[in-house]
Amino acid sequence: MTMVVDEPLAPITAPRAENYLNVDYRVRSWLLTRDHKRIGILYLFGITFFFCIGGASAVLFRLELMTPEGDLFQSETYNRLFTLHGVMMVFFFLIPAIPAVLGNFLVPLMVGARDLAFPLLNLLSWYLFMIAGIVTVWVMLAGGVDTGWTFYTPYSSTYANTYVMATAVAIFINGFSSILTGLNIIVTVHKLRAPGMTWFRLPLFIWSHYATSLIFILGTPVIAVTLLLVALERGLGVGIFDPALGGDPVLFQHLFWFYSHPAVYIMVLPAFGVISELIATFSRNRIYGYRFIAFASLAIAVLGFLVWGHHMFVSGQSTYAGLVFSILSLLIAVPSAIKVFNWTATLYKGRLLFATPLLYALGFIGLFTIGGLTGLFLAATAVDVHVHDTYFVVAHFHYIMVGGTVMAYLGGIHYWWPKITGRMYAESWARFSAILVFVGFNLTFFPQFVLGYLGMPRRYHVYAEEFQMLNVMSSAGASILGVGYLFPICYLIWSLRYGAKAPANPWGATGLEWQTVSPPLTENFAEIPLVTGPPYDHPESALLPDDHE
Amino acid sequence: MKDADFQLFPDAASTVASRVDALFWFLTFLTMVLSLLIAGLIVYFSVKYRRSSTADRTPYRADTRLELIWIIGPLPILFYIFFWSATLFFELRRPPADSMQVAVVARQWMWKFQHPSGKREIDVLHVPIHRPVQLTMISQDVIHSFYVPAFRVKQDVLPGRYTTVWFEPDKVGEYHLFCAEYCGTNHSRMVGRIVVMSQADYEAWLSNDTGQPPQVAGMQLFEKFRCASCHGSSPSPRYAGERDGVRGFELSEPGIQRGPPLAGIFGRDIPLVDGRTVTADEAYLRESILRPQAKLVAGFPPIMPSYEGQLSEENILELIAHIKSLQAEGGTPP
Q1: Is A284 within a domain?
Q2: Which of A158, A341, B15, B124 is the 20 to 30 Å CA partner of B294?
Q3: What is the dihedral of CA B168, B172, B175, B181, to 10 degrees?
């Protein structure tokens, strides 16, 4: 991508060059900021905090699962721990992680804008997110909630005597944060692209965030309405889901998964965008099949709304409805496969540099492939009947959510760290912990596929003795994974003070975000760039641009 | 089965188990082939095109045919998986007509079973080998899920609505029964055993039985609640079946019969006051006992009181068993 800016690649070397970080050190300058980059950093603190809480609860229940008996906690406690883990990780880490941290920071930079379309709304969305998260933490301290993150009725609406209402309110509030972020990204991509930045010159990171934002604004209201209905039934006794009040418990599952299956794509689509950036930069190649990857993101966003019933093959849903959801769920494998094959093809004739971000990206492709293919088992009705609600499902979605999204998130954090902070991280530590995460992840979750096929149900505090060996393997793996997550927190903080100063474009990447200084100016660009060429236009790329560029 | 500390393959003890496994292993094979293909390509490219290598990097253009191959290529495989699994799924959903009928009532946190002979069990179900068994299940509180891994069957058990599952055991032994849908504090203790016995052992086990068949218990309830005073099965009026395209009841003495006679009603299509028809299955009979005004039969006044709160789920199942047993008097169902 060529640029017409005065001296585009020259980092500002003046001793006290102003950037978005050092422009103002006061606390209020952070808490009242409208700079998308600062808000991205505020989100980074928030989600890291919530990730640590979700992770700590996982450590505790993996410890409990070392033995078949319930010897560490009461069942009440165990059930609160896995619910806390699910609620924290899904609503307060996975959904906002990439869009609200990296997306916030990068979308305006990548399209060549000075900020998101609605900076004040962006700040509001962070406050909503923090209020929701803190209410959830308060719920945990006050006694917790034990419904699972899925809140199935009538257990959640009538029987559970834990803090269901407060948690529902928190997720309801958090939904507005998602909607505002989605709205901001969509309007920014439509209206604030730099001159010459046509749709097919946009980085794939933008395409995938655009697709994600569509789901944010179309899907999130449904979960908000659903939780409101649960609250109405629980608080006022309005019969909606509980048959004792004339309701239908399966209705809840339809409404819940109508949001929560697309939410899976909210969690993984931004990761696809990150991976496209990493693969292109570290193979010094154009992306193979750029348009196919871009449209695959949109196809996933649309198809994702039509497959919710595959969570309900044994719920009492009609057999024929099950078959429709089965074939649609199988078909969603096609756009996923398009991405995996195109990323792999991008490596062909590349110039691969095995920096930490590429290690995460390659790990992502492998784990996402396994996660995606095991999804076929769950779309195949008769096999799902056996493995539904077992550890097979747990393993499957952790391959997508952790093997996929978390790997991409960490890869992205490393890749853009020099841009965000102006410092280089310690490469050898980072490579080591990337490998640790990969090994620990597989050791944790691969045994769970076997456990599920053997028939161990999920959310079991005590379990049959023959499942112990595999559970011990899983817990051992989790300890390695945990260490793999702690390392980056340490060496990244260390780099803020001791890391080498980062140049504007340490990786030789092509995106607009690398054409400005590290860290960027508050207004991002001294002068709005003019875009004249296709994306990923590496001069040494062996893959030539498409004819229509 | 439980003496093994470690296993990789679950017990397979029903007629469908090995067929579900065949599809499972086909999918596993597919997953391994494709994962190894991708991993192999990544490793090969990583070595060959590392930055320091001097491998051939002659410029080339993307080939749309390659895209079409990986878009269209998976489709036949996906449809193959769909039809294979759908065929099995239908089989899992369609109990054979001659299945042994067992009633299941689930609650936090136990499983209650009743055999056709009336014998009751809690958390353990004894069944004979080589005989299809159909469970009619309902929950008293939250959603549970009946899961027997060795049979490869699972079905959620709902409050307020019957669901059904069937299996035909083909191996004698004891197998886990798990609740697979999270149902509260002791979810992981809502477990039990399915004991598969030879036919002779099962008969012997049943013979020291003191229970009474559900239709007999149902008849007693029928008398206790004086159901016959309105639903008497006197020869007239009687269900006339379909005649001249009109379905309905033939009332020889209009105004005297206060409720539809029940003989032969099970399994029939019944005309309602609002013009619709409904099949008189277990779900409809249950609803009509608890909420009689929900779907009124054409030709009868809305006078039946609700029995909600007066009957346990077991009682309702017994009443339905009794109504089913009244077939002979009203003729055989179509």
Answers
A1: yes
A2: A158
A3: 10
